[in-house]
From TrEMBL:
<dbReference type="GO" id="GO:0051015">
    <property type="term" value="F:actin filament binding"/>
</dbReference>
<dbReference type="InterPro" id="IPR001303">
    <property type="entry name" value="Aldolase_II/adducin_N"/>
</dbReference>
<dbReference type="InterPro" id="IPR036409">
    <property type="entry name" value="Aldolase_II/adducin_N_sf"/>
</dbReference>
<dbReference type="InterPro" id="IPR051017">
    <property type="entry name" value="Aldolase-II_Adducin_sf"/>
</dbReference>
<dbReference type="GO" id="GO:0005856">
    <property type="term" value="C:cytoskeleton"/>
</dbReference>
<comment type="similarity">
    <text>Belongs to the aldolase class II family.</text>
</comment>
<feature type="domain" description="Class II aldolase/adducin N-terminal">
    <location>
        <begin position="25"/>
        <end position="210"/>
    </location>
</feature>
<protein>
    <submittedName>
        <fullName>Ribulose-5-phosphate 4-epimerase/fuculose-1-phosphate aldolase</fullName>
    </submittedName>
</protein>
<dbReference type="Pfam" id="PF00596">
    <property type="entry name" value="Aldolase_II"/>
</dbReference>
Length: 263
């Protein structure tokens, strides 16, 4: 079997269905893209994806790998109880498992929102900064108007207690994005490309807000009816699903930079 560069991990392709392998490749690509666009936090944070055709299984990163190291075969498959269903052999020196906080957050959403395939959580400095602002995310420009009705979840400490899962799910509701107060950002999607698209735009929204507020000049308000109309133009029923157009191009970008995510 092919050996992955540097880490010596044997390919998982023969150990999973073709549908799971495709999900693994897309999820590994998502990790690399989060890294490329400056949204990674070393080995912290998580992106998870539901395993197609399996009722109670999703893929998540091995805790200890950098996002730039993650490949299709390095992902760990777990169930909603946190039990490892399959994992690569990391060898005696790399005894990686699954981070508890990642399991608590991601399993809660996967169990409650069966239509979703992907959950992304980040700790970027713009996201954390906006999460600490009492005003939350402001609809200052067209990009952030997409998130006019974004969800919020109050900080309750490091997310290690499964008791917090109910409030996480309730606060997210039917939205595809949520600000974890004093913590960071979270997006979800019916596909991996959709969730990445939401996170990329949410990150841009946070950056533009901080830049505008830093100018110490009055902010230009947009009438509520215009905000509502713009928000509706971004909803699934009025446009094609997010990620469909740009995802193949993003994969081509990664293939030019480093195609090892596919291993």
């Amino acid at each position: 079997m092919a050996e992955l560069a540097d880490l010596g991990i044997a390919s998982m392709r023969s150990r999973c269905s073709e549908a799971e392998w495709e999900a693994r490749v897309d999820l590994a690509a998502c990790y690399r893209l989060i890294e490329f666009y400056g949204m990674a936090d070393m080995a912290a944070n998580h992106i998870s994806a539901r395993v197609p055709g399996e009722e109670n299984a999703f893929l998540i990163n091995a805790y200890g790998l950098l996002y730039e190291e993650i490949t299709a075969s390095s992902l760990i498959k777990i169930n909603a109880d946190g039990e490892i269903l399959s994992a690569p052999d990391f060898g005696p020196d790399l005894k990686y498992g699954v981070n508890r906080a990642g399991f608590v957050i991601h399993s809660a959403i996967h169990q409650a929102r069966h239509e979703l395939s992907c959950v992304i959580h980040t700790h970027t400095w713009p996201g954390m900064a906006v999460s600490a602002l009492e005003c939350g995310l402001l609809p200052l420009a067209q990009t952030s108007m997409r998130f006019v009705n974004i969800s919020y979840h109050d900080y309750q400490g490091v997310v290690l207690d499964e008791a917090e899962q109910a409030s996480l799910v309730a606060d997210l509701g039917g939205n595809n994005a949520m600000i974890l107060r004093n913590h960071g950002l979270l997006t979800v999607g019916r596909t991996i490309p959709e969730a990445f698209n939401a996170m990329h735009r949410l990150e841009l929204s946070c950056k533009l807000q901080l830049a505008a507020m830093a100018c110490n000049s009055p902010l230009n308000p947009v009438p509520r009816d215009v905000l509502d109309k713009t928000y509706m133009n971004y909803q699934p029923q009025t446009r094609r699903p997010y990620g469909v157009m740009e995802w193949p191009a993003l994969l081509r970008k990664l293939d030019r930079i480093d195609p090892s995510y596919r291993l």
